[in-house]
Amino acid sequence: MENRLSTLSLLLSGRADAALIISNENRRYFTDFVSSLGYLLVTHKESYLLVDSRYEEAAKAQSKNCTVVPFRKLSETLTGLISQNSIKSVMLEGSAFTLNSAAVIENYIKQAGAEAVCSDELDNIIGKMRITKTAEEIEKIRKAQRLTENAFCETIKLIKEGVSERELALDLEFRMRRAGADGVSFDLIVLTGARTSMPHGVPGDSKVKNGDFILFDIGATSDGYHSDMTRTVALGKTDSTQKRIYETVFQAQKNALSAVKEGVTCGFVDEAARSYIYSAGYEGCFGHSTGHGVGLEIHEAPSVSPESDFVLRSGMVITVEPGIYIPGKCGVRIEDMAVVTADGCIDLAALPRELIEL
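RESULT FIELD:
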């Protein structure tokens, strides 16, 4: 891992003397250390990872490119470091603080004779760093995808009449974790029958019936990085209406994947999928965006949404996930992750996207 902290320090020049990072994902991004609590103070000369006694030993053994500073009272340790480094301004992650926690930290910084800068500026700086993935990051996402796919291929063997959504979701999570996943990327979505029309429905006790679509929106994490994949399969033969919906989504996703490349806007990719679905007579049946970025968080920038003028660059990882949802009847979504390249994209999914009738 390159020294991202040095890069951040350079980007702070002219903006602030230091930055204080508290979000779990950003602390991990910069130090490679995982904890549920900690404070990363980045100055122009040194970076300090402040942890309590629970994490001191592990942080000293595992963190990179920073000095680990254990604390008993955060106020004393933080104010001491600010004074020691003659810091006059500290930039905060605007999105990571609650109103109450921001007030507490701002007071500590004020006690040290410095000014707290709480805005979206630091978030934007870090966001621009994180949005383009390194080869190492892409490989971690790819590994998470393989864990997801392997679990999916085993779990669909269990699909039969009478099996519940909840049972399938639990089996998927068990298989992912047993194979080495850190955990699941999000609460797994497994829906059957008419419930597939809910894009983010919650698995329940509904049972699979012959002729049903079964929608799986699933993902695993590996070394902190997420995967995200959706497949819609059927138990038994589908009817002509189901087939038409599936083929429409399938072609819409192919159109969007073909549109992905460096230099095009996210809105252009969204339109490639949306216009096809609408022209097929399903306007109003595709309400969500076509995709989003994926990395240390399951939803990251950019948003592949209508009218977005954000320009894609090589190394970004986005999902491409159009869908059609008809309340009371059925829904279909197909989703892959794609790595943007200079002349197209690399689909990280190895599974076929054609309809599977079990």
